[in-house]
Amino acid sequence: MRVGLTGGVASGKSTVSAVLAELGAVVVDADVLAREVVAPGTDGLAEVVAAFGSSVLAEDGSLDRPALGAVVFGDEARRRVLEGIIHPRVRARAAEIEAAAPAGSVVVHDIPLLTETGQAASFDAVVVVDVPVETQVERMVSLRGMTRADAEARVAAQATREERLAIATYVVDNTGSREQLRTRVEEVFADLAG
User: Does 124 fall in a domain?
Assistant: First the structure.
């Protein structure tokens, strides 16, 4: 069973991902893989440097993510170049992890930009972690110390709540308590594993 997991920034997707792993799902985390494929010594990092220059490297030779972000933020063409380097490598690594999963596993692909990248149809089911936009903004301001304007910009840069809900096989509402969230994730997992 191949499952896509997504949710807007500060929706609680990482918490849901962790609960699914505890329940026995094989979790493939796109963010972790995106860091792995540009680690020092990888061809991914070499290609990023070839495309964007050595100014995107930290002193220790690792990728300086804020420096790279400053280069691609607001420049669609440069962002697409970066995505063209990272996304195929992430997909290849995810396929390796999935292929190694035991038969009958529920394999959950934790993909923040699942909606934006149009990958929903490649999964047997899509789980969307959902909260109102105002909740996302409040969480980023209170938990991450962001300004309200920065938090709103981050939400606006992603797919809309309605776009995410439109691709959902299962919706996990994360406006209640942790216990309510866990109960809902257990219900979804039981259905997926069944």
Answer: yes
Q: Return the SS3 of 167.
A: coil
Measure the CA–CA gap between 34 and 79, rounded to whole angstroms. Answer: 14
- 11 annotated to a ligand binding site: yes
DSSP 172: E
According to the annotation, is 13 in a ligand binding site? Answer: yes
Cα 169 to Cα 61, 74, 91, 97, 161: the distances in Å are 42, 32, 22, 23, 14
Q: Are residues 100 and 110 in the same domain?
A: no
Q: Are residues 19 and 39 in the same domain?
A: no
Tell me the three state secondary structure of residue 141.
helix
Range of the domain at 129: 1-25+106-194
Q: Residues of the chain whose pLDDT is less than 50?
A: none
Is 14 labeled as ligand-binding? yes
pTM of the model: 0.84
Q: Evaluate whether 94 touches 111 at the Cβ level (below 8 Å).
A: no
